C-alpha cells in the first residue's frame, strides 16, 4: 500500500467536513511529498495547512479538526521509515472509524463489491485485502468497514428493524427448495433442464438461488458432471477398436454408471429427497466412486491396459478403505483377463489378443520365434525370474511345434498344464510360481533331449569345430592337396561342382569318414558345403574359397552358423585360419621342390663352380624358408590350441557335451563270473518315474533354447575378441609398432606369403637352369636365367628383411603388452 492511500482515510476523518473530496486528495498528495522529503520541517507542514484553512469558513469545529490533523502529522514527521508511517496511519485509522461522519453533498451508493473495493483505505495495510478475512483480528475491521459503508444509507439510524424484516425482500425472490429438488435428478443424470441448463462440463445455477443452497448444489452437481464425462467416454470407446483390458475397464465403468443412474431414479421416485442435504447424503458414496473412476481414466487414449492393471493392483494397499475396495474389484476384473493372456501363452504360445498389453511382444509377424521379453511391462506382482520362465515356455512350445515338428509332444504338455493352471484358477500366487517352474523344467528338458537325440546337436557342434574351425587338420590338408590346381586359377573360372567333388573325396579319405553311412542318413556331415566368396575381379581361388555348414530347422535356431542377418563369425574365423593352412601348404610344397633340385644339381658335375654356387644359394634360401615356416607354424599352433581349443573346452564344459544326456542313476552293481554287470538286488519302482514326473537332478543344469544360442554366440565371440583377432574400437595398440595386433599379424602373414611366392619363383628359375645345364643349351639363355635367379634371390632377401623387422616389432609389442599369455607367445616367436 502506498503512503497516499494510507493518508487518505486519516485526512478524510480529521479534516473539516466542508473540505471537498478533491481538496482532500490534493492535500494527501502534498502531505506525502513532505513526509517523503529528506528536508522536512514543521514550518512546511504549518504553511501547507494554513493554505487549505483559507479555502473554507473558519469555525471552532474546523479549528479543532485542523489542530488534530496537525498533531498527527507532527508525530509522523519524526518517523523516518515509510513502512512505520503506514503502520501508524493504519492504527490511527481504526480509532477514527466510529468518529467518521458523512460529508454533505456526497452521493449515496449501494453496497456492491466495487463499492467495497473503493474503501481499501479503511483497512489495515499490514496484509493484502484478499488475506484479511482469514485473520480473526481483522474481522472487526471488516465489520466496521461494512458498517461504514452502510452508514451512508443511514442503516444505522433504524436500530429497531429486525433481521427478518430486512431479509424477507431478498428471500421472496429466491427459488424455493422444493422447486430445486424437482430439477436436481435431471442434472444428476446429465440432462439439461429449465432451471439448471447443462452444457459440456458445466451446469448453470440461477442467480436467484441463495448462497447456502448454491453451495450444496455445487457439491451435488459434481456427480452429474462426473457422470457426464464418464458416460461420454464409455459411449466413445464402447464400439471402438481398443485393447481387451481397456475394453474390460470400459465395461466396468459402464456397469458403475448403470448402478448410479438406477440409484438416482430410485431416489427421485422414493421421495427420500426431502432436502438438498439429504440428496447430498444419498449421493455421497456415488460421488466418491465416480470421482475415483474419472481420475483413474485420465489420458485413457495414451494409457495402456496393463498400466491400469498395475495401478489398480498398487492401490489395493491404499490407506482409504473405500479406494481399496474399488481398486480391488477393478484389479480382480482386469486380472481375470490378464490371466487369459498368460494361459494362452503358456499353453498355446498365442499373442494374438494381447494388443501390446502383455510383457511378451512380437517383433516380426513373419517369424513366430521373433518375440522378446519387455521387462518394463512386467507387472509388479510377477517376479522378473518367473516372467523370464513364462517367456521361455511359450517360445519353446513354438520351437517344438513349428521347427521340431513335435506336435504330439506340444499337445500333451499343453493339455497337462492347462488343467493344472485351471485348477488353481491361474491365481498369481506362490502356487502359480511353482507350477511355472515345474512347467519350465519339463519343457526345457524335453527340448534338450529332442535336440540331442533327434537332431544330433552334440555331433553337429563337434563337426563345426572340426571342420570350420579346422580342429581336424587332415581334412583341410587333403582338400588343399586335391584342389590346389583349381585354387590357383582366377576366381571367375572356379566351378562350385568341382569344389564340392573335391570336398566329398576329402571327407571320404579323412578321419571324418566315420560320419558317413550312419543311421542319421548323413545328416551331420551332409550340411558341409564349399563356397566361393565374391571379392571382385582379379582374385584367385585361394582368396575366395571357404567352407560353410548349412543348417536348417531347429539347429539353425540354437546355432549361429553364418546366419544371413548375422556377423558371419565362422566365416571370419575360417578365413583367418585359412591363411595359415595356405602358407603351410606352399612352404611344404616348395621345400620338397628345393630338396629335389638340390639332389638333381648334385647329379651334375659337382666340381663345377656354378653348380656349387647355385646349391649354396638354394640351401641358404631354404634356411630362410624354414625360419618363416617355423614362425607360421608357431602362430598357427597358438591360435588352434590357446584360442580355439581353450574356448571350446569352456563351451564344452558349460554344456557338458561330452557326457551322456540321459545320465544314468548310480546304483550298486555286481559282476557275474561271465563278466556281465548286473544290478544288485531288486529295485523298487519309483512312482515319479511311472508318472513321468521324475524330479530333475539339482546338479544337472538345463539350458533353454535362448541360453543355448547365447552360449554358442559367446563361444564364437570369445574367439573373435582375442587380442590377435579382435577388431573394432576396443582393440589394443602395440607400444612399438603403433598398430593393433590383428593388423600387425596380418602384415606378418602377408609377408610370409610374399616370401614363399618369391621363393617359388626362385625354384622355378633354378629348375629352368637345371634343364639348360642338362641340355647344354645356349650360353646367353643360361645367363638370362642366372640373372633371373639372382633377381629372385635379392627380392626374397628384401622380403625376409621386411619380415624380420615387422616380426621384431610384433614380438616386442606382445612381450610388453602386460598380458602373460601374449608375453609367452612373444617368447616362443622370438
From TrEMBL:
Gene3D superfamilies in UniProt: Gamma-tubulin complex, C-terminal domain
Listed GO biological process terms: cytoplasmic microtubule organization; meiotic cell cycle; microtubule nucleation; mitotic cell cycle; spindle assembly
Protein's UniProt keywords contain Cytoplasm: yes
Cellular component annotations (GO), alphabetically ordered: gamma-tubulin complex; microtubule; spindle pole; spindle pole body
GO molecular function: gamma-tubulin binding; microtubule minus-end binding
InterPro entries: GCP, GCP_C, GCP_C_sf, GCP_N
Keywords from the named record: Cytoplasm, Cytoskeleton, Microtubule
Domain Gamma tubulin complex component C-terminal residues, every copy: 463-828
Segments forming domain Gamma tubulin complex component protein N-terminal: 182-452
Protein known as: Spindle pole body component
Amino acid at each position: 500500500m502506498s503512503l497516499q492511500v494510507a493518508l487518505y482515510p486519516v485526512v478524510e476523518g480529521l479534516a473539516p467536513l466542508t473540505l471537498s473530496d478533491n481538496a482532500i486528495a490534493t492535500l494527501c498528495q502534498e502531505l506525502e511529498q513532505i513526509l517523503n522529503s529528506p528536508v522536512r520541517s514543521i514550518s512546511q507542514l504549518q504553511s501547507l495547512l494554513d493554505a487549505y484553512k483559507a479555502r473554507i469558513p473558519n469555525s471552532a469545529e474546523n479549528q479543532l479538526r485542523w489542530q488534530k490533523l496537525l498533531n498527527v502529522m507532527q508525530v509522523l514527521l519524526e518517523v523516518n521509515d515509510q513502512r512505520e508511517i503506514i503502520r501508524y496511519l493504519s492504527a490511527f485509522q481504526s480509532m477514527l472509524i466510529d468518529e467518521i461522519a458523512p460529508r454533505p453533498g456526497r452521493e449515496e451508493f449501494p453496497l456492491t463489491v466495487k463499492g467495497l473495493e473503493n474503501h481499501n483505505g479503511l483497512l489495515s495495510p499490514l496484509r493484502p485485502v484478499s488475506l484479511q478475512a482469514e485473520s480473526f483480528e481483522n474481522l472487526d475491521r471488516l465489520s466496521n468497514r461494512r458498517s461504514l459503508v452502510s452508514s451512508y444509507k443511514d442503516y444505522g439510524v433504524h436500530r429497531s428493524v429486525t433481521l427478518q424484516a430486512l431479509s424477507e425482500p431478498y428471500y421472496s425472490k429466491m427459488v424455493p427448495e422444493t422447486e430445486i429438488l424437482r430439477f436436481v435428478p435431471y442434472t444428476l443424470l446429465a440432462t439439461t433442464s429449465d432451471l439448471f441448463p447443462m452444457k459440456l462440463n458445466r451446469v448453470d445455477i440461477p442467480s436467484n438461488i441463495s448462497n447456502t443452497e448454491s453451495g450444496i448444489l455445487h457439491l451435488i452437481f459434481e456427480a452429474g458432471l462426473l457422470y457426464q464425462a464418464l458416460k461420454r467416454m464409455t459411449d466413445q470407446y464402447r464400439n471402438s477398436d481398443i485393447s481387451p483390458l481397456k475394453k474390460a475397464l470400459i465395461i466396468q465403468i459402464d456397469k458403475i454408471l448403470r448402478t448410479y443412474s438406477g440409484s438416482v431414479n430410485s431416489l427421485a421416485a422414493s421421495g427420500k429427497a426431502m432436502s438438498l442435504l439429504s440428496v447430498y447424503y444419498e449421493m455421497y458414496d456415488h460421488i466418491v466412486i465416480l470421482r475415483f473412476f474419472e481420475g483413474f481414466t485420465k489420458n485413457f487414449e495414451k494409457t495402456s491396459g496393463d498400466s491400469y492393471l498395475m495401478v489398480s493392483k498398487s492401490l489395493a494397499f491404499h490407506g482409504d478403505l473405500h479406494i481399496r475396495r474399488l481398486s480391488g474389484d477393478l484389479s480382480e476384473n482386469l486380472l481375470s483377463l490378464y490371466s487369459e493372456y498368460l494361459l494362452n501363452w503358456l499353453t498355446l504360445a498365442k499373442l494374438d489378443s494381447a494388443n501390446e498389453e502383455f510383457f511378451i511382444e512380437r517383433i516380426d509377424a513373419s517369424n513366430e520365434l521373433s518375440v522378446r521379453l519387455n521387462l518394463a511391462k512386467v507387472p509388479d506382482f510377477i517376479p522378473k525370474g518367473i516372467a523370464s520362465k513364462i517367456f521361455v515356455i511359450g517360445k519353446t512350445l513354438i520351437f517344438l511345434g513349428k521347427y521340431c515338428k513335435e506336435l504330439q509332444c506340444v499337445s500333451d504338455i499343453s493339455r497337462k498344464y492347462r488343467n493344472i493352471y485351471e485348477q488353481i484358477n491361474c491365481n498369481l500366487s506362490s502356487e502359480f510360481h511353482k507350477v511355472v517352474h515345474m512347467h519350465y523344467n519339463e519343457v526345457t528338458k524335453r527340448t534338450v533331449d529332442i535336440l540331442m537325440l533327434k537332431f544330433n546337436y552334440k555331433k553337429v557342434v563337434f563337426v563345426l569345430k572340426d571342420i570350420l574351425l579346422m580342429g581336424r587338420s587332415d581334412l583341410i590338408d587333403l582338400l588343399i592337396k586335391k584342389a590346389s590346381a583349381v585354387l590357383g586359377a582366377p576366381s571367375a573360372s572356379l566351378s562350385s561342382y568341382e569344389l564340392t567333388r573335391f570336398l566329398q573325396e576329402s571327407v571320404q579319405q579323412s578321419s571324418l569318414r566315420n560320419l558317413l553311412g550312419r543311421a542319421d542318413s548323413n545328416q551331420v556331415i551332409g550340411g558341409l558345403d564349399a563356397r566361393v566368396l565374391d571379392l571382385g575381379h582379379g582374385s584367385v581361388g585361394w582368396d575366395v574359397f571357404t567352407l560353410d555348414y548349412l543348417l536348417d530347422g531347429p539347429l539353425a535356431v540354437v546355432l549361429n552358423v553364418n546366419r544371413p542377418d548375422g556377423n558371419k563369425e565362422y566365416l571370419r574365423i575360417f578365413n583367418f585360419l585359412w591363411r595359415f593352412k595356405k602358407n603351410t601348404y606352399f612352404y611344404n610344397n616348395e621345400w620338397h621342390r628345393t630338396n629335389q633340385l638340390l639332389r638333381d644339381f648334385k647329379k651334375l658335375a659337382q666340381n663345377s663352380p656354378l653348380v656349387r654356387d647355385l646349391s649354396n644359394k638354394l640351401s641358404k634360401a631354404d634356411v630362410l624358408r624354414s625360419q618363416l615356416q617355423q614362425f607360421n607354424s608357431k602362430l598357427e599352433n597358438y591360435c588352434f590350441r590357446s584360442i580355439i581349443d581353450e574356448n571350446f573346452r569352456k563351451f564344452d564344459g558349460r554344456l557338458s557335451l561330452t557326457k551322456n544326456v540321459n545320465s544314468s542313476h548310480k546304483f550298486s552293481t555286481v559282476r557275474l563270473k561271465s563278466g556281465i554287470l548286473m544290478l544288485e538286488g531288486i529295485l523298487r519302482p519309483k512312482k515319479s518315474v511311472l508318472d513321468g514326473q521324475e524330479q530333475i537332478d539339482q546338479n544337472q543344469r538345463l539350458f533353454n533354447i535362448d541360453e543355448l544360442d547365447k552360449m554358442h554366440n559367446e563361444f564364437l565371440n570369445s574367439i573373435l575378441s582375442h587380442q590377435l583377432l579382435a577388431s573394432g574400437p576396443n582393440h589394443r595398440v602395440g607400444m612399438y609398432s603403433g598398430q593393433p595386433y590383428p593388423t600387425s599379424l596380418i602384415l606378418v602373414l602377408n609377408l610370409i606369403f610374399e616370401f614363399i611366392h618369391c621363393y617359388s619363383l626362385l625354384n622355378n628359375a633354378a629348375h629352368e637352369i637345371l634343364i639348360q645345364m642338362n641340355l647344354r643349351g645356349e650360353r646367353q639363355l643360361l645367363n638370362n636365367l642366372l640373372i633371373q635367379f639372382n633377381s629372385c634371390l635379392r627380392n626374397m632377401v628384401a622380403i625376409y628383411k621386411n619380415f624380420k623387422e615387422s616380426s621384431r616389432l610384433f614380438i616386442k609389442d606382445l612381450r610388453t603388452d602386460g598380458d602373460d599369455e601374449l608375453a609367452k607367445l612373444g617368447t616362443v616367436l622370438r
